[in-house]
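Expect chain and fold; thus:
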Amino acid sequence: MPRKSMDTLTESMFYVLMALMTGPMCGIDIAAFIENRTKGRVKVGPATLYTILGKFESEKYIRETAVEGRKRTYEITGKGFEAYREELKRLKQCVIDAEGGN
């Protein structure tokens, strides 16, 4: 059975939601958060980031809270929070499975 596109999140999607869990941010702040949190292991370029933000906004995972010129600020919604928690739970189970646990 094919999965829906939002059933699991890509690594970049997961980190975008993680960034927004800390509070409202614009795209530049989100990219900086991800690079800092992952110590440079994950870098999200502008095209990828704005594609993710557009998809998340259409899926109601985030909402735009402010616009200043070209700068747009976003915050996570309840639906986005639940998506983040579900993905975190899935990833934790992956680690448990890899370590041979229950």
The helical segments are 11-21, 27-37, 46-58, 78-98. The first strand starts at residue 25 and ends at 26. The longest helix spans residues 78-98. The chain has a mean pLDDT of 93.
